[in-house]
Amino acid sequence: MWAHIGPPYPIIQNQKIGPFNVEVWSNPDVGTGSFYIIVDPPKGSGIQVPADMKVQVSVQPDSKRLPVATYGAWREKLLDHVEFKAVVPFDQQEMWHIHISFSSSTVNGAADTDVPVTPTLLGRWNLLLFLLPFLGIGILWFKAASVKRSRRRRRVRVAAGTTAK
């Protein structure tokens, strides 16, 4: 997990907040970190996630060099489950304390964890790295087109030479 680069991974699993089961997945990278908060009602209970539920993500470095910063999460429109998403800016690689609070007219609660914020793969060089395969395909396409064009010209010259005799 310390060398995490890639898709989100679970940072909280099977946490009970009122009657709900909560899971939090995150991709905490330097720059922008993403949090996906999944709120599931108990199966077969008929309980629904309240429409007025608000979710907030609060972050602070474990070193306490910065004050607590709180960010609102918005509800994603998904058919099969209720998910909230929050985007949080992280300024450097270190351990951060994450506090997620839930509030509605019927349910209140919170969940806490610590996560290591990881650097992005290569920073600004990512774009160049990920463009290389497309550049290679483009170069091959232009090479194939020029070979095809030169063959066509050669055929035209050969055909013109045979009719001139």
CATH superfamily of the largest domain: Domain of unknown function DUF4426
Structural class: alpha+beta
The global form is elongated
Under the CATH scheme, the architecture of the largest domain is Sandwich
The largest sheet is:
8 strands, antiparallel
List segments where confidence is low: pLDDT < 50 over at least 5 consecutive residues. Answer: none
Termini separation: 76 Å
CATH topology of the largest domain: Immunoglobulin-like
Query: Quick check: average pLDDT?
Result: 87
Count of helical regions: 1
Order of helices and strands: EEEEEEEEH
CA radius of gyration: 27 Å
E-strand count: 8
How many domains make up the coordinates? 2
* Strand neighbour order, sheet with most strands: 1-2-3-6-5-4-7-8
Helix content: 10-25%
Your description of this structure?
The chain has 165 residues and is α+β, with helices and mostly antiparallel strands. Helix content is 24%, strand content 43%. It is built from one helix and eight strands; from the N terminus they run E-E-E-E-E-E-E-E-H. The chain has one helix spanning 126-164; strands at 9-17, 20-28, 31-40, 54-61, 69-76, 82-90, 95-103, 108-116. The longest helix is centred in the last third of the chain and has 39 residues, at 126-164. The termini are far apart.
